[in-house]
Amino acid sequence: MLIAAALNVVFVLYLKTFVDNLIDIRGFHYTLLSMFLALIFLNVGMVMSWFIVDYTLELLKRKAQVSLWSVMYRKLVECPQKKLDEVTPGEYMSKILSDTGFVSSIIGAFLPALIVNATQFLSNIIAAALLSPVLTLAISLSIPLYFFLYTRQSKYMVSSTADERKAYGGLTESLRVKVEAIRTVKNLNVRKNIAGSFDADADSWYVKIKKVLFVEKRYALSVNFLRNIIPIIILGIGIYLTALTLISVGTLVAFFYFSLSFFNPLIVMSTDLGSLSQAVSPIQRINSVLTLPSEESGQKEIETIKDVYIQDVSFYYDHQPALCKIELKILKGEKVAIVGESGSGKTTLLSLINRTYDPCEGEILFNGIRTREYDLESLRENTMLVTSKDMLFSGTIANNISLSDNYPKEELIRAAEIAGITEDSLTLEESIGPGTREVSEGQKQRICLARAILRKPEVLLLDEALSAIDSRLEGKIVTKLLKEFSDKTIIVVSHRLSTIVPMDRILVMKEGKVLADGKFEELSNSCQEFTSLMKRQIVQ
What we know:
Strand order of the largest sheet: 6-9-10-3-11-12
CATH topology of the largest domain: ABC transporter transmembrane region fold
Distance between the termini: 76 Å
Shape: elongated
Number of strands: 12
CATH superfamily of the largest domain: ABC transporter type 1, transmembrane domain
CATH class of the largest domain: Mainly Alpha
CATH architecture of the largest domain: Up-down Bundle
Structural class: alpha/beta
């Protein structure tokens, strides 16, 4: 950086000497040769210096971006689910991928770039003053014009960028949903409708970005006009001073050449400062992730769970009741099924037990201690929830089950056998994901179930975890599962006979309340809601 600035000063002073000596024919040959060698040396030095500076600044930008990705993703993982649900996944993707890239490009190397260009501009002023103080004063009078343009630019960029970033977040979510739904779109033959909807979202963003681009290019136009017109004005002043013999021709030529790039560092600095206003909205959006609350965690460790006590628990989604004063106790080793119509609160109840959510009212206790008092990692190691919507990752089936935890191979094989993975032609070493083998929904559910089986939690929570598997295979899996977890607690949401009949207890839920609690035979004779559910769900 300092070398490049020094070379810049040396070059313009040498240019002045060259021109003055060129006029004096006696030193022509010597001057020409020395100028040739000096140009080679100076240009190579300046090019290499700027390469090092530019490469270093780009690395700083990318490092800042990667660091932000990591910090933001961890904040999402640690955030309470209820808070996380307030924003769509696409919005979070936009903030993590797009906004961080946008901001890191502007700010990641802002301070180093400011130092580089400030040093360069200072060297320009020194070189200019050494050439001609009068011309230096003349060219310096235009500096306020650049700052006027900068302040005007900042005012417009803040509002236009905020609108554009918001529209881009909406576009990202729209694309995410529509890509995930491509198979559904084809099945229902609504390609034109959905494509038209995406076009509307894209056009909405285009309108916003068009405004941002206009403000940017208008600023660039004004700056370029000043950069081109000022050297011409300086040339006119210099010709006048040369006529008065106040400066030499060499000084005029060197200063004119110098004035062509005199304001480049200032322009870069004002552009960077102007970009800061453009980064205000993305920074606010990034900050909305960085300031997300973290899940509360206690300090007590769980060694065993002797009982689960749900004490007068209520829960609300946006002030709409999902659970109403649930009172329930489940002992260690009990196998409990939960049935009920959609929206009756089954999934919510399981989500409260493993603290995906916390109750709005009441408490859930393990061993007589509130779940909030337990270390969150310890609690979730011992209360694992498997749902029908759990995700798979690209990689081998073994990696999808172990999720990078170290387990003996025989334990992986055992978990896969219990989950019924070996019923198909799947092997643990087989890769799944884009470009490899595509697994069915039933196979996906069995792989997800194997994850929990491998980890042997004290309480296993299954939410329609085998809904895509035929009842014959489901029955075999449940039989193995009950044997493997004979001393553990299992709570399962299902409506299939193959799953609920072997359970010790069945809870019938309706409108967020436990309507009945008993064995299959008891409920079949005493609970009309249960009988109705069995007729409507199982016969199908």
